[in-house]
Amino acid sequence: MHIPKADGKLRALGIAALEDKIVQHAVVTALTPIYEADFLGSSYGFRPGRNPHNALDALWMALHWKRVNWVLDADIKAFFDTVEHDWMMGVLEHRIAACTNRSARPANGCGVWFKATSLTPPSRATAIA
Asked: What mean pLDDT is predicted for residues 64-88?
């Protein structure tokens, strides 16, 4: 299954099995404390207890009560399609090892998500409208 994107391309729709969801939850539980310390208070993307409405509220307050010279909104086009997955796994392993004083080899299981592919080739995909 694929979902049509605004630019006319198709995005693969991944439907996780129960086992995948359990492992994903375990990974999030392990990585959140490690990476949460790096984020600024003004960062809202995919963080526990924060959502887009919180970000919009903070933006509104800043625009109305502080001197703001610029606002930046950025999106890296097709980042996970083009990033070097082995490099990303190395960064992840290094960060886990630095924070836990343990080998990060269990993180290798995350690599399957980076390299996951669709079961249906895009040329034969059914788009969901």
From this structure: 85
